[in-house]
Amino acid sequence: MKLKRVWAQCVKELSQFRRDRLTVALAFLLPFATLLIFGFAIRLETKNIPLVIQDFDNSAFSRAYIERLYGTNQLDPVRWFRDKLAQDSINQGKASAAVIIPPDFSRRLKEGKTSTIQVLIDGSDVANARVIKNSIRATNTFFLKTEGLLPKQSLITSRTRVWFNPGRQESLYMVPGVLAINLVLYPSILAAIAMVRDKEEGTIVQVYASSTSATELLLGKGLAYLSIALSEAVFLMMAAALIFGTRLAGDPTPLLVGTPLFLATSVMIGLFVGARSNSQSAAIQVVGAANALTTMLLSGFIYPISNIPWPLSLLANLVPVRYYIELTRDSFVRGTGWPGIWFVFPALAALGLVLFWGAWQKLQRMQFSD
Question: Which domains are delineated in the chain?
């Protein structure tokens, strides 16, 4: 293997990249748009849940209770007509829950008796149903305390402190994951397009006729698109810092070491698929579909990996973005550093080598020799 051939291949790929404006847009504008869309649109905390309340008591006490329910900022009022049942709003899909206050609500409470409130929850959305149930329970407890209907002192008192993200900003959790998704999707697509483009244009025959080996071709293309991917990473991290306020927490060296390693693995995904594809459209479809499915379902981006049932959870260990999400969320949120995420680096290195070997094996059978 000669480094001069690797460098020549790298320079050629970078020259082609600069001349293709559409490819440049794919490399920078689309990742930036994805960062904005995912960063602003995806929220894990459920809000604005429609709730209808049927108040048969219609007293100042019941109205204060209703105000407390809607004051949680999770529940939105739905208009109720007296000639209809509250559950009709759930059946028609207008509300996710209904609270029915009995006629003797305030009288029984003032007499020190128990008053039963009926709560109907739409269980078709399990996540929302759990949020509504917990919200109403917490509101009941808080309302009774403020009205002096519960003992002022409790035998058990909990003092809760939220670590790493005391303001509970969802962007601090979502944006590092979005960075990982962008940096696995677009560099791999660009690398796959570059590999297939030589086949479609016939320039691959010139490589066959030359003394360039499969290793040199892969390293040359990989080096070119690794440099482009690094530019993307710097651009997206700066944009995330300016727009969403993400900042490094703790030791920055794991991110500095892990990012080039992950990007190299991402580029290898594209070269692996491109070596086995005969058209750019097919390569884009394979890379896009594979990355979309794995990043959304098996990476821990939205759903914890611990929630994935066995044996599907075993596949998560073969998804590179799963490890980089661990790294970015630690670097931007937790800041535990090397002791907490050391396993990311051997995993990414192993996956990258396997992908490189798979692409090399395919090109070896196409008249290359080392």
Answer: 3-42+168-364 (no CATH), 49-146 (3.40.1710.10)
